[in-house]
Amino acid sequence: MNKDVFCGQKVRLTVADKEKFPKLLNEWSQDSEFVRFLDSDPAYIYNTAQTQKFLEEEFEHNPIFMIQTLEGDQPIGFIELSGIHPTNGDAFVGIGIGVKEYWGKGYGTDAMQILLRYSFEELNLHRVSLNVFDYNPRAIKSYLKAGFKIEGRQRNFLHREGQRWDLVFMGILKRDWEQLFKN
Amino acid sequence: MINRPLFQGNLVHLEAIDPEKDAAIESLWSQNPDYAQWLRKDEGPHPMMAFQVKKKQEEALKKSADNGREFYFGIHRKVDGSLAGFLRIPWVSWSVGNAWLRIMLPDEAAWEELGSEVLGMALTYLFDELNIYRVTTSCPSYANEQIAQFEAAGMQMEIRACEAVYRRGKRWDMLRYGMLRDEWESLKEKSQ
User: Fold this and answer.
1) CB of B2 within 8 A of CB of B62?
2) What is the pLDDT of residues A136-155, one digit of tens each?
3) Contact state of B180 with A129 under an 8 Å Cβ cutoff
4) Does the CB of A169 have a partner CB in chain B at under 8 Å?
């Protein structure tokens, strides 16, 4: 019972600071690759006040966390739940690792593991869903490692760089997570 | 052809939503949880009072006027002008040509009676007027009539979200259907 719910092997999830987080998000968003992995809307640069307003509205009722390294306490990204449905017991997870040197090294997977544990053991959700673009195979691999299954694709969902890309839809049920990772 | 009537069918026609008149009717429909589940995104299905529905309808119309990426219509029966449902396009992403479609009919009987025509009018509007590239819609796996209509219209099931819906004391999958522009064009060619 004493285990820190928000602590993993490489990262911890912390409260998103109202002043620092918008500034960090804006800094990371200067890299359009980060933005293009995150969002289907056209890549764009917002100022800090706009980002702050968006975060206040979007996450008034939804949990959003900074991802911070255990070694050095460096904020490297964020992870959030949205669309938490009280009767369906479903929510969508979104994650972004803004510091590129931490891509592909298990930090995102660790953050996702923490978030799933929180979702199933604290929020008592039945399932967690996510969307990912098929030009992001690194993220798909990380989500599969975290226990998500591919449940389908929205064909030709995105149009970027003169090409159409699918949106990959993934989900994980509580009972599947428990079988894979509990005990 | 430019003179093709986009808003007129054989059984129904489309009109602007009038919250003064339409809200009371939709409030009655919201007593059906199958209908009510689509009225509030992140809440369990429950009936809404007419003034709550009116506020939602007014907000939707204002957003539509402000952002130009949402479109809403009332569906009216031609025989007596009565409100039969709503055709909602709650999201258009112009940069990639995607749109989300939500047809709101009060029950499975209405879907059986009007679904085919309303879906045809919706797809015509989306592809031939809004110039959309792909259309997405969804329904729970218990909605047999909707599934039948989507598939009869040529839409493909793309996603099955396992046990994503809890209704009627059981877990159901949420199904997402999609249609691409070239599929629409191909269907049109075959029907000519």
Assistant:
1) no
2) 999 999 999 999 999 999 99
3) no
4) yes
- pTM, full prediction: 0.93
Q: Indicate whether A2 pLDDT > 60.
A: no
- Partners of residue B179 on adjacent β-strands: B135
Report the SS3 class of residue A29. Answer: coil
| CB contact A30 to B (< 8 Å) | no
Determine the residue of chain A that is closest to B178 in CA distance. A154
Q: By CA distance, what is B135's nearest residue in A?
A: A157
pLDDT value, residue B39: 87
Give pLDDT tens digits for A121-137.
999 999 999 999 999 99
Asked if A40 lies within 8 A of B93 by C-beta distance, the reply is yes
Residue A124: enclosing H or E segment and its boundaries?
A: none
Q: What are phi and psi of A13, to 5 degrees?
A: -100, 130
Strand partners, B159: A152, B176
In chain A, the residue whose alpha carbon lies closest to the alpha carbon of B45 is A87
Are A126 and A173 spatial neighbours (Cβ–Cβ below 8 Å)?
A: yes
Beta bridge partners of A172: A128
Share of chain B above pLDDT 90, in %: 89
Q: Count the Cβ atoms, other than its own, within 10 Å of residue A85.
A: 20
* DSSP code per residue over chain B: -TT--TTB-SSEEEE---HHHHHHHHHHHTTSHHHHTTTSTTS------HHHHHHHHHHHHHHHHHHSS-EEEEEEETTT--EEEEEEEEEEETTTTEEEEEEE-SSHHHHHHHHHHHHHHHHHIIIIIS--SEEEEEEETT-HHHHHHHHHTT-EEEEEEEEEEEETTEEEEEEEEEEEHHHHHHHHHHH-
